[in-house]
Amino acid sequence: MRKFSCEEVAGVIDHSLLRPTMTDSELEAGCRAAAEWGVATVCIKPYFVSRARELLQGSVVRTGTTVGFPHGGHAISVKVAEARTALGQGAQEIDMVINIGKAKSGDWDYVEDEIGALTEAVHQEGGLIKVIFENCCLTDDEKRQLCRICKRLQADFIKTSTGFGTGGATDEDLRLMLAEAGDAMGVKAAGGLRTYADVARVIEMGVKRVGASQTGSILAECREQG
Question: Is the pTM above the cut of 0.90?
Fold first, then answer.
């Protein structure tokens, strides 16, 4: 496995600040740390988007947040309103959870309508959208179907997991998603990636973004690697 610089590693990390019990002071500290590290984004709780954008002003770090998180069961209109509110408050990237039950029901028209509505709303405001599958709940055929829908609708990224399900990013799922995405979409690995070795492995596979809450320790390990 090739070695990656700390700048390369930081540049693919979406620093997760989503733990339900995180206080405002912890969220502020997380944003300041992210700015020092030079990560790709912070993925912040929705109510904190405006403050995060202020704290990250002048840094390379983009402001991201979630929609329909973590279970995806919101009505499409509610998800669209969530996205538009977040974008209006300064969010630049949206991580949205699909309606998992609809995917499990095989109601692909509904799933396509939902992803399409969110993608259109986000792209209208110049944002990026990442579509979260929650792979631990899905069969391989369902994952492939979701990849193809997202590709057809020109989503920016497809993402393995919320990080709050029963499983996270597996190499098998990443290989499947990377093969389906090709050059048309990025793949984001999230859930269970806690070490420099974890992150380096998935970058080498072709993953473009990594969701991580242990960013500080990952980058410390990277520095120790030289």
Answer: yes
Q: What are phi and psi of 116, to 5 degrees?
A: -65, -45
DSSP 8-state class, residue 11: T
From the candidates 102, 130, 143, 188, which is the catalytic residue?
A: 188
- The per-residue pLDDT for range 96-132, each reduced to its tens digit, is 999 999 999 999 999 999 999 999 999 999 999 999 9
Domains of the chain: 6-224 (3.20.20.70)
Select which of 156, 159, 173, 198 is catalytic: 159
Q: Is 159 a known active-site residue?
A: yes
**Distance (Å, whole) CA 73 – CA 55:** 31
- In order of 39, 52, 64, 221, the CA distances from 91 in angstroms are 16, 9, 5, 30
* Residue 188 is a catalytic residue: yes
Specify the DSSP class assigned to residue 61.
Answer: P
Q: What digits encode the pLDDT tens for the residues 203-225? A: 999 999 999 999 999 999 999 98
3-state helix, strand, coil in the chain (%, to 5): 50, 15, 35
Query: Residues 95, 156, 173, 198: which is the catalytic one?
Result: 95
Active site residue 45: no
Between vectors from CA 142 to CA 139 and to CA 145, what angle results, nearest 5°?
155
Residue 124 burial by Cβ neighbours in a 10 Å radius (0-12, 13-18, 19+): exposed
